[in-house]
Amino acid sequence: METQPAKNNISSYIIQSQEEEIKRIALELHEGVGQTLYSLYTGMQFIEAAVNLPDLKGYVGDMGQMLEKTIQEIRLLAVELHPPTLATLGLLPAMKSYLKLYTSTYGITVDLQNEGVEVQISERESITLFRVCQEALANIARYADTMSASILFHWEPSQLLISIKDQGEGFDVDTAMKKSTGLAAMIERMCLINGTCKINSKIGEGTSIEITLPLY
């Protein structure tokens, strides 16, 4: 029978391989498709300025707006896949950058608070924490039916605590765990970096997610 450490190693390898591929796709979206669309958008603006017929001018303007919206969606998708600031600036700046796009896309305001002194953590830990927070925020957008949420980063000498809360509809955790692979993935991802993820929710009272990462 396969031992738990062996399973963890396999899961960790699969996740790492996925992250490398995700990083490649995100870069291609941003540097390739995104830049091409922006060039088309710039050309469309030039054409709109040169057109004199009102009907044609309005049509070109509408096409330009569609391109602009598509560029915004591509940017959000690229950041969701792999935020460029994560490796260069760290977890907190990456989350702040992501939340701006999150709010502009879903209309949900997220209050981010940071307590204590930020400690440098590994890229693997940063990616894992970002993914878990990202999944929690995605669930809020899909199911919570709320316009606000909060994230608290609390740095202690021995651990990092992240608390994500909303006052939305809430759900039955036991039932959701049987149906949602996303919730199970959040817990498993944290286990792979020796952390924890605890999910608490009550119908009609909102949801609270407590994430803990030991700091060595």
UniProtKB/TrEMBL annotation:
Pfam families reported for this sequence: HATPase_c, HisKA_3
Entry-linked CDD domains: HATPase_UhpB-NarQ-NarX-like
Recorded catalytic activity of this chain's protein: ATP + protein L-histidine = ADP + protein N-phospho-L-histidine
Alphabetic keyword roster: ATP-binding, Kinase, Nucleotide-binding, Phosphoprotein, Transferase, Two-component regulatory system
Stretches assigned to the Histidine kinase/HSP90-like ATPase domain: 127-215
GO cellular component: membrane
Molecular functions per Gene Ontology: ATP binding; phosphorelay sensor kinase activity; protein dimerization activity
Signal transduction histidine kinase subgroup 3 dimerisation and phosphoacceptor domain residues: 23-86
Domain of life: Bacteria
EC number(s) given by UniProt: 2.7.13.3
PANTHER family documented for this protein: NITRATE/NITRITE SENSOR PROTEIN NARX-RELATED, NITRATE_NITRITE SENSOR PROTEIN NARQ
Protein name: histidine kinase
Protein source organism: Cytobacillus oceanisediminis
Source taxonomy: Bacteria, Bacillati, Bacillota, Bacilli, Bacillales
